[in-house]
Specification:
NADH-quinone oxidoreductase subunit, cell membrane, elongated, membrane, 2 helices, Methane Monooxygenase Hydroxylase, Chain G, domain 1, mainly alpha, NAD, transmembrane helix
């Protein structure tokens, strides 16, 4: 028999989403630790960062890339 098994591209898409949101968590932790000294600038900077990720997630969701069939 054939030892190779083809995996769906969906597995790789889910893996990429995991990596992106894992990196987001890596950036959020140090920001949360030093939030007070950063002040409003740090708050708005992180809000823009999270906003970019949310816009990307909404785009991918709208395209149907998160549908598992």
């Amino acid at each position: 028999g054939d030892a190779r098994h083809r995996y769906s591209v969906r597995f790789y898409v889910i893996a990429m989403f995991f990596i992106v949101f894992d990196i987001e968590a890596i950036f959020l932790y140090p920001w949360a630790v030093v939030f007070k000294p950063l002040g409003w600038f740090g708050f708005w900077e992180m809000l823009v960062f999270i906003g970019i990720l949310v816009v990307g997630l909404a785009y991918v969701w709208g395209k149907g890339a998160l549908e598992w069939e």
